[in-house]
Amino acid sequence: MSDENQVSSDPALEEVMRGVISIDTTEQLHRKWQSSLKTGDPLRVKLGVDPTNPQLHLGHAVPLRKLRQFQDAGHIAVLIIGDYTACVGDPSGKDKTRPTLTHDECRENAQDYLEQAWRILDQERTELRWNGDWFREMSFLDVIALCGRTTVARQLERDDFQKRYAGGKPISLHEFIYPLMQAWDSVQVNADIEVGGTDQTFNLLLGRDLMRQEGLEPQVCMTTPLLVGTDGSMKMSKSHGNSIGISDPPEEMYGKTMSLPDAQMGDYFTLASDLSLVEIEEILAGSPREAKGNLARTLVRLYHDEEKALAAEANFLRVFSQREMPEVIEEYTVAPTDLEDGKIWIVKLIVDAGLAQKNNEARRNIEGGGVRIDEQRLEDHESQVEVREGMVLQVGKRKFRRIRIG
Fold first, then answer.
1. Taking a C-beta distance cutoff of 8 angstroms, is the pair 156, 171 a contact?
2. d(Cα 113, Cα 383) in Å, to the nearest integer?
3. How many CB atoms lie within 10 A of CB 51?
4. What is the pLDDT of residues 290-333, one digit of tens each?
């Protein structure tokens, strides 16, 4: 058997290529993999993340899980926390300039981010880097030199910049610097491979260019799909209200998974679970309801444990199949200062209790008939509701809060 066939049939390589959209280039990946097998030197696999939000969801977990697969194959995961790139704001896939964060905000978000990331990555086998370590040492002349590594014409090849430019929408100068910063990260850590979502393709390829310019072997670029959210249409995002957080309580994670459209199950099994492709094929050949329950159990087990997965399933069946109230309901305490004559605006209560992100979302839930207090439906979003000790507020099918008065 040829060396190429040996590499191609390597189960570990097949696993790291699972679910990947594109590889630049597959031939180079095979060559690097084969060289690593011969020499025993592990590959350096980079993932750069910006801590713009402290909460991770299953969409964020897709490239993190890819990094873990490389770790399980014996390679080095290089996780770069973009405490400086986050201050710029990644323009990838955006139709307007992103709000910028302060460095302190980025560092604070990163602490929560890492606590969740270690649920996926093996911390002891992860090389953790902060790109502020090299960017803070650069002079303004160094920044000018970095900007000279590419052209405006090349930057305008990006789909997002093209659309904004054609539509007369502003592109701030600092947004052009972001891809260069991400690419320079690859030079600094001498990455063999970089993993990222499909929206990062331009940035990853620019890393190859800068590595060549520095006389380094260019990195292999592996792009993973952007996981669609629970609505079945938009990219998973907390701002879209369609995300499943990896730190969500077991019952909430289970319930959100059960709300997925059937058509999304294949992607979730492939990208978000640890089941083999053979297992996935067998599960999807059965009934969609049983397959979705299997997926929900699998995800809860991954981020909690088997016991909590089974308990979450039992809770779901009790609440939604038998229409019963859950046995354990998270509590929210209303401050007396928020009450006026013992009452509170229902929209404020829903948002404060964490059952909606914004007032508009709370209003939509009320108008859609999805809000109940002690199983009585509310339909007026202007309602001032009387707060009673121990009353149960329900939003949608899965979200409950027992209200206390502080």
1. no
2. 38
3. 22
4. 999 999 999 999 999 999 999 999 988 887 766 667 777 889 99
Answer for the pair 131, 81: CB distance below 8 angstroms, yes or no. yes
Residues in the chain with pLDDT values less than 70: 1-9, 92-99, 321-324
One domain, residues 110 and 63: yes
Residue in 36, 33, 37, 42 with CA at minimum distance from that of residue 13 = 33
Q: For residue 239, is it within any domain?
A: no
Q: How far apart are CA 375 and CA 70, in angstroms?
A: 49
At 168, give phi and psi (nearest 5°): 75, 15
CA distances, 77 to each of 91, 113, 403 (Å): 25, 16, 44
Summarised one tens digit per residue, pLDDT across range 258-290 is 889 899 999 999 999 999 999 999 999 988 889
Residue 7 near residue 33 (C-beta atoms within 8 A): yes
| Rounded (10°) angle between helices 265-272 and 288-303 | 30
Per the structure, the complete domain to which residue 357 belongs is given by 331-405
What number of residues does the chain have? 406
Which DSSP category does 44 fall into?
E
pTM exceeds cut of 0.85 = no
Residue 12 and residue 30 in one domain: yes
Own/partner pairs, 362-365, CB within 8 angstroms, 24+ separation: 362/395, 365/395, 365/396
